[in-house]
Write a structure and sequence with these properties.
With 197 residues, the chain is an all-alpha fold. It is 66% helix and 0% strand. It contains nine helices and no strands. Helix 2 crosses helix 6 and helix 3 crosses helix 6.
């Protein structure tokens, strides 16, 4: 099935095409990332995670639709969702997109938990895919000097490592938590080694 065929609102093809064009960029936040997030949502739904698949799929399509490494990328993506989506979807999709700034869904937010876990699932990827993800993130922030990037990236990684759980759903924890922690620790050790030179 093509990525276009996974768009959840078949009566809005122009919006789908606009989103596909927006995601068609280099770096990590590209069409492959969108496809992987949708794949992981399918995995979580298949495991019985209780979330509205249409709403969360729409949020996946919008969550990094605007991405240029700026501090307000998620906010601009959320505003696009509010402007472009039918009213029955717009507010909830925008809320979910904004949740991806911190990836800290509330305990009573199954939609937020599913989207957060699907988005963070890359952390538990194979070593080769994780390393490609890291290279893609660096490409996304090519405008940031190496030393500044290392400091900022290390801060993000330390915040993630310090969390009691990276993932909110039981199935995601079972599938990805251990591998994610190993990847994060390995990347952080590399950054700290470079900083110590």
């Amino acid at each position: 099935m093509s990525l276009a065929d996974r768009w959840p609102l078949p009566d809005h093809p122009a919006l789908r095409d606009d989103l596909l064009a927006a995601w068609d960029r280099s770096g990590y936040h590209d069409l492959r990332h969108l496809e992987e997030v949708l794949d992981r949502l399918d995995v979580l739904a298949g495991a019985g995670a209780p979330f509205d698949r249409t709403v969360v799929a729409l949020a996946a399509w919008f969550h990094d639709a605007v991405y240029d490494g700026a501090g307000d990328d998620e906010e601009r993506s959320a505003r696009w969702a509010e402007r472009a989506l039918p009213p029955e979807w717009a507010d909830e999709v925008a809320r979910l997109v904004r949740m991806t700034v911190e990836h800290r869904p509330a305990g009573d937010d199954p939609a937020g938990a599913a989207l957060s876990d699907a988005d963070l699932g890359i952390l538990g990827a194979s070593r080769a895919r994780y390393d490609a993800y890291v290279a893609g993130v660096r490409a996304d922030f090519a405008h940031v000097a190496d030393d500044d990037f290392r400091v900022g990236r290390a801060a993000v990684l330390r915040d993630l490592v310090a969390r009691a759980h990276l993932f909110s759903t039981p199935h995601a924890r079972e599938l990805w938590e251990d591998a994610a922690r190993a990847n994060l620790r390995r990347e952080l050790a590399g950054l700290e080694g470079l900083s110590g030179r």
